[in-house]
Amino acid sequence: MSGATAAAGAPAPLLHVDGLVKRFGGLLATDHADLRVAPGELHALIGPNGAGKTTLVHQISGALASDAGRIRFDGDDVTRWPMPRRVRRGLARSYQITSIFDRLSVRDNLALAVLARQGSSLRFWRPARAETARHAQADAVAERVGLAARLHAPAGALAHGEQRQLEVGLALATSPRLLLLDEPMAGMGPDESERMVALLQSLRGATTMLLIEHDMDAVFRLADRISVLVSGRVIAQGTPLEIRHHPEVRRAYLGDELPAMEAGA
Amino acid sequence: MAERPVPSVPPAPADPADRMTTAAPSPSPSPSARPPASLLDHPLRWRTALPMLLLLIALPPVALLLREEFYIGLATRVLVFALAATSLNLVLGFGGMVSFGHAAFVGLGAYAVGILMQQGVTSAWIAWPAAMAASALFALLVGAISLRTRGVYFIMITLAFAQMLYYLMVSLKTWGGDDGLALPGRSSVAAGFDLASDTRFYYVVLALCVLAFLGIQRLLNARFGHVLQALRENETRMGAIGFPAYRHQLVAFTLAGGLAGLAGALLANQSGFVSPALLQWNQSGLLLVMVILGGVGHLWGGVVGAVVFLLLEEVLSAHTLHWQFALGAVLLAVVLAAPRGLAGWRRGRSA
Amino acid sequence: MTGAGVLVLEQSLNGLQFGLMLFLLAAGLTLVFGIMDMINLAHGSLYMVGAYLVATAAVASDSFWLGLAAGIAGTAVLGMLLEVAVLRRLYQRDHLSQVLGTFAILLMANEGVRMLWGSQPVALNPPAGLAGPVELLPGFLYPAYRLLIIGVGLAVAALLYVLVTRTRIGMRVRAGASNREMARAMGVDVRRLFTAVFGFGAALCALAGGLLGPLLAVQVGMGESILILAFVVIVIGGIGSIRGAFFGALLVGVVDTAGRALIPLAFDHWLGPEAAAGAGPALASILIYLLMAAVLFWKPRGLFPAHG
User: Fold this and answer.
1) Using a CB-CB distance cutoff of 8 angstroms, which residues of chain C are in contact with residue B141?
2) Which of A52, B265, B277, C243 could tie B131 with a disulfide, CB 3.0–4.6 Å?
3) Res. A265: pLDDT tops 50
4) pLDDT interval class at B267 (50, 70, 90)
């Protein structure tokens, strides 16, 4: 079940990405990437622009097929699984570019996501509207992500920050074992980002998370462990402290983020 | 069938942090106890439906009284097309799949009845379910291949497969070929109760259409219907929350095909004749026209569309031989001005 | 040459001829699909109107060639007018609107033609000099007119290839296809370009309609049957790809023509006359669609899908 390289006594990784390769014509976007996310931790994936983070996330979530390598999730080899199957197994994802159901209310959005992991959708007779338990669950998720006041607003009418919250909420509503967060704070101002950080803090421990983010401040505050992706390859993996002082990482970032990292020490 | 009261959600106390994010127009939920209607639900408003049903039930005796029996036959035809158009609306309006081959399923159902009758099987209890099964099976096959494609490919492929059936039936001389098949009579329901009488046939058709319509309405409001509509709204996201699109769309496609087959069986009985012309893609186009005239994605879209279209046809063709020109002009005007169809336009729903 | 050999050769040439004409239609159609992302059901109507215009002009001028030229020019103009007046509004719309809008045009075109020319087919005769057969091989005669069609078809295919890959216009077309905004920013008048592309496609339709007119009947509804085949060609070849349209068209042309002639014969030979009369034509008529289904099964986006 766990990789042979796991240390004796350490829990098996919930997500184990092993030698993943992806080529686009002549471009090697993912170069034998290795990644291990332990259950319960908040693992951040960072890297300079063009490092291939999105490509890697697409492969983990199932949106893109890898050319080589393996992805193991919670004991299953999901490398060839289609995306919906992975989601039903507990691997959910939020998107960098908001993709929600604009015309539906926030509650309807979340209720759909709750339905995905709950029983059969091949029911043709009983009105879905009467499923109060499911709606209550949707409401609870809305509460969790801070959208309780906007429950009946059409998702398209929400402010950008609220839409990002809904984006995370949709993934959360599927009761995932692992939550893949693709730049949840994209396009957010400082106050909105603060709320998102608070949300992610509140999820720690209960939900394992793999967070892709550019906001270094947030990353270093939240992450238990960090992996650094450069040119499709994970060049470093460790605690925030270790990463801060890692020579290759400093080199890769070439001073851009260094002041932030130094200041945080 | 009355709507069950939904537990109301009390407005949440204002969160100070919300100040930052509320740039949106309406920050507080509406003060009414009930939440606004969901786009996914399609309630049956009995206030409008019941009078309509009563009118339909009263039609034959009134027509007979006024010595206008012709209208019973016309009304039967309208009902049959309403069923066909509603089945297409299921796939098109609610499923978001632009299928250009729906006439094939209608025609196949009609042929099933015709062929069985030619072989001596006249019982409606056998022929009509057989028609539905044949159409559903064909829909399953076509859908299984077509639904793996998207966009214009899907449209063209459904069109091509429907046309394939047309050419097949034209070339099969044993079943009439190009000339078609005349039915010796209508299907038999029970000893002593034959459908030769237009009035009796009308009531049977009405009953079946009402049942089918209610079934579709329940389906749309059930889990399956919600998922189907959500797939239309954002298929990618549905995949990302765990719903495989293909499976659900294929089920919807097959169901719609089966219902279209029923419409075909009834149509064959109504006109007493089946021909490959039923299968042509012009017919598929006309079914699409009905749906857009009535309202794509609206519960009554297929019904309204069939009524409007067939009435238009009656009125226009009485005036001129070239009524299809006027139809084309009307259709073009509708497409350019009212993208979601007439019903949507009237109610002012955002496209 | 043996009887069977002659038959195969004849059918192959017929298939080639039909396929090349299909290519003329498919090329215009696939360009519109690929560049404007628009599904156009009225394309067959341009073919029909083109044939009618050629026939009328040929009779009026008593010359096939003048008729052909006039018909092509007239249809091109008509196509461009149609694009500017109506079709332009459909580019940004969803596929359903495009389907129904162009279907409306199809209905109006069919009735319009019927109103102007009546329901009876119109006669179109091949040019006098080419009415007879040519001896290609000892013992093998083939109609000269069909050879002309093959020649014209190949010439147009070559011209298209050169136009699209080696000229500035071709580059502009491809640029407009892959990134409209960028092309516009670089000074390409995208709207004019689209109109020109559409007009060119209409001209190709008229050419095909005019050339096939003497062989098939010039009548209302002739556009529909060939349009379906053009769709099948594009699905098999890949949307947006001229190369795909070419190979798809040849494949469809040969399979369809040869199939219709040879399958009933094969059935008769191996299975007896009843099968030949019944199942033979049936299978032949659906052969193309089975072929399409088979191609789609392995390559859902066609054999040569265009990128971008």
Assistant:
1) none
2) B265
3) no
4) very high
Residue A108 near residue A166, CB atoms below 8 Å: no
Asked if the ipTM is above 0.90, the reply is no
Query: CA–CA separation, A171 vs A224, rounded Å?
Result: 21
Q: What is the mean pLDDT of chain C?
A: 85
**What pLDDT sits at residue A66?**
92
What is the 8-class DSSP label of residue A121?
Answer: S
Q: Which residue has the higher pLDDT, C168 or B213?
A: B213
Distance CA(C113)–CA(C307), nearest Å, equals 38
CATH 3.40.1010.10 fits A10-90+176-265, yes or no: no
Residue B301 belongs to a domain: no
Q: What's the rounded Cα separation, in Å, for the pair B338 and B330?
A: 11
| The pLDDT of residue A16 | 93
Mean pLDDT of B224-251: 94
- Tokens linked to A197: 């950080």
**Hey, are the CB atoms on A146 and B223 less than 8 Å from each other?**
no
Residue B167, min C-alpha distance to chain C (Å): 6
Contact C286 B168 (CB under 8 A): yes
Domain ranges of chain A: 10-90+176-265, 102-175
Cβ neighbours around A164 below 10 Å, total: 28
Average pLDDT over residues A19-46: 91
- Residue recorded with tokens 């078609």: B180
Structural domain contains residue B338: no
- Structure tokens given for C111: 């009735």
More confident: C304 or C185: C304
Question: What pLDDT is stored for residue A255 in this prediction?
Answer: 54
d(CA B185, CA B158): 32
pLDDT for A170-192, tens place per residue? 999 999 999 999 999 888 888 88
Residue indicated by tokens 């537990």: B7
* Residue B147 structure tokens: 């639904």
Q: Which residues, including other chains, have CB under 8 Å from residue C91's CB and lie 6 or more apart?
A: C36, C37, C38, C194
Distance from CA of B118 to the nearest CA of C (A): 17
Dist CA B221 CA A125 (whole Å): 8
Give the largest Cα separation in chain B, rounded: 78
The answer to whether residue B1 neighbours chain A at the CB level (below 8 Å) is no
The Cα of A84 is separated from the nearest Cα of chain B by a number of Å equal to 4
Q: CA torsion angle for C97, C100, C103, C104 (degrees, to 10)? A: -100
> Is the predicted pLDDT of residue B178 greater than 60, yes or no?
yes
